[in-house]
Amino acid sequence: MKQFGKRTVRIIDAVLIGMIVFCVGCGAIRGNEEEVSGETSIANAGAELPKIGSETISLTEESGISEETETTEAEQRVIALSKSNAELWLLAGGTLVATSDDAMKLEGISEDTVSLGDMDHVSLEAIAALEPDLLILFSTDPAQKALGEAAEAVGLSVYYTNIDNFADYENVMLELTKKTGRDDLYKTNVTDVAEEIERIVRDVPVDSEGGKYLLLHVSATKSKVEKDDYFACEIFDRLGLENIAADDSAFDELSIEQIVATDPDYIFVVPRGDEEKALSSFDELFTSQPAWAGLSAVQNGHYYLLSKDLFGLKPNENWADSYQEAYRVLYGE
């Protein structure tokens, strides 16, 4: 029979009270994708983050009995839900007691790491039973936000992430490496990467003509124009192009007529989900239309299919690789 510590008793008792809070947010927990565009923020929803390092934690039961226990960095119990968040914590030098299914093949996941299933359908009870010191979630994913609020209501510490650009990545990694005490990993995974990005940007030809681009995310069911709050747009902007859909009022509903009317100099397509089905759907709705062949981007050979790994998923420590690939596409080097 599994033995539960005093912290588990405290959390599970609180869960029974907090489940009402959780259920209020349950309506939002329905199949959201990992890449969610939104306002740049790294929120903590008012919860004080635990100091992850050597510290003393006082646990007080309802009976009034206090117990002090010494915890160290290696003993911290962290849960990160999503491949991206799990990778961030691992890059910061941490270990994971549990994560979501999509992260289980990441380098650094141990045999003891528990899979909690789909990132947007994890129960609060399953999390509480693992006695985490910290839960890492997305701030812009409705399902994860609801889960985080419910977790905070029962006394769990939650750290929210939202990475729309490299500066966001820098800020999150600064916070996480402070918690793990791994300044060396901040240098390797952030400072050195930033220096490489600046080198690539400096190499943009001074006589580059630039041009306007359209960046599309395509899936089997929907094609979407990405605006300036999407991380890959920052890359192409810094390499000398201009996002034709930067205006928030533009391209809310994508159509071949809109694309023809704006006639971008470059068109970039990033598949989402099943790549074959995504591209088949996009071809049926757009590229097979007679007007598509007349676009400047198509006629000049500036219509590109981009890597999902570098431009669809948050690149994290591979930001410089994303910049290098974009540079190669634009300038052929």
Identify the notable features of this structure and list them briefly:
333 residues, alpha/beta, Rossmann fold, 2 domains, 5-stranded parallel sheet, 5-stranded mixed sheet, 12 helices, 39% helix, disordered N terminus
Topology, element by element:
Layout lengths: L5 H19 L30 E6 L5 E6 L6 E3 L2 H9 L6 E2 L14 E2 L8 H6 L4 E5 L3 H12 L4 E4 L4 H15 L2 H20 L9 E7 L4 E3 L5 H8 L3 E2 L12 H7 L3 E6 L3 H13 L8 H4 L3 E3 L2 H4 L7 H13 L2
Parallel strand pairs: 3-4, 3-6, 4-5, 6-7, 8-10, 8-11, 11-12
Antiparallel strand pairs: 1-2, 8-9
Helix pairs in contact: 1-4, 5-6, 6-12
Describe this protein's structure.
Strands 5-4-3-6-7 form a 5-stranded parallel beta sheet. Strands 8, 9, 10, 11 and 12 form a 5-stranded mixed beta sheet that branches. The chain starts with 5 loop residues before the first helix and ends with a helix. With 333 residues, it is an alpha/beta fold. It is globular and about 60 Å long. Helix content is 39%, strand content 15%.
Task: Please sum up the structure shown.
This protein is an alpha/beta fold. Helices cover 39% and strands 15% of the residues.
What is the name of the CATH class of the largest domain? Alpha Beta
As for the CATH topology of the largest domain, it is Rossmann fold
Strand order of the largest sheet: 5-4-3-6-7
| Biggest sheet layout | 5 strands, parallel
CATH architectural category of the largest domain: 3-Layer(aba) Sandwich
Total separate domains = 2
State Rg: 23 Å
Distance between the termini: 62 Å
Q: Which structural category fits the helices and strands?
A: alpha/beta
Order of helices and strands: HEEEHEEHEHEHHEEHEHEHHEHH
Strand fraction equals 5-15%
Segments where pLDDT lies below 50 for 5+ residues? 1-6, 8-12, 14-75
Question: Helical percent range?
Answer: 25-40%
What shape does the CA trace take?
Answer: globular
The total of helices stands at 12
According to CATH, the homologous superfamily of the largest domain is Nitrogenase molybdenum iron protein domain
Mean pLDDT: 81
| Record field, number of beta strands | 12
